[in-house]
C-alpha cells in the first residue's frame, strides 16, 4: 500500500507538475485569502499553494460554512499555478472549469461537472465510508480507463477507492485501498466473478487488488475470488454503480497459523468521466 501510494505521489507531484518541488508538507489550518502581498512568486511556491488549497477543499463538504471560500481559494491557486508554471496539457484549466464554488459560474466557459466517486467498504467489520481515487485531491474524477496496471487484452475500467485520499502526503498504516477492474465486454448490468489479480486472472474477467494489511517480513494477505454486481451502467448519465464482496486470509511469515478468511463488502457509485467516453 505504501509503495503504491508513494509511487503515485511521485508521478502526480513530480512528473505531472512542470518544475514542481516534491517537498510538499501536510497542510494544517485555514487557507489564507489571496492578496497582492502574498501571491506566489515562483512555480514551486504556486505548486505548494495549490497542494495546500486542494487538500483543504477536499476535506470540506458542500454543506460546510466555508465551502465556497475554500473552493475559490483552490481555484485562485490553480490560476496562479497556470500563470507561473504553465499548463501545456490543459489539465489545470480543466480542473478550474469543473469547479462550481456557488458563485453562479465555473472557472471557465465549460459548464461545471459534478464528479461522482464514492466507494464504501466494510473490511472485517470496520467501516470505511469515504473512499475515493488516490489522485482525487489533485485530479478530481471518477473512473479511469486502461491505467498502467490494466491488462493489454481489452479496455478496462478502473474503480479505485482509497481511505487516505484526503492526506496524500501522509503514508499511513491505517490506509486501505481497493481497485476493481472491469473489461469492456462486461460494461453492463450483471453479476460477475471477481478474481484476485495475482492468482486467478485470465483474459476477459473482472479482477481486484486490495492493499493495506501487508507488513513486509511480517504478514501478507491472500485474496480469494469474490463477486461484483453492476447494478447500473448508463452511458447517457455516464455513471456506474454496484456492489462487491471478497474474502482474504492473513498469512504470517513466522509460521503463525493463517487467520481468516475475513470478509470485505462494499459499494461503488462513480462517474464515467474518463476521456474514453467522450
Label this structure with key terms.
2 domains; 4 helices; 10-stranded mixed β-sheet; 278 residues; 21% helix; disordered N terminus; alpha+beta
Protein architecture, described:
With 278 residues, the protein is an alpha+beta fold. It folds into two domains: 43-99, no CATH class; 119-277, no CATH class. Helices cover 21% and strands 31% of the residues. The chain is built from four helices and ten strands. It has helices at residues 2-15, 43-58, 67-85, 91-98; strands at 117-123, 126-131, 144-145, 156-162, 177-183, 190-196, 206-211, 219-234, 239-252, 259-271. The chain has a ten-stranded mixed β-sheet with strand order 2-1-10-9-8-6-7-5-4-3, with no helix packed on it. α2 runs antiparallel to α3 and α3 (67-85) packs antiparallel against α4. The longest helix has 19 residues, at 67-85. The protein is globular, with a radius of gyration of 20 Å. The two termini are 32 Å apart. Mean pLDDT is 77; it is low at 1-29 and 104-113.
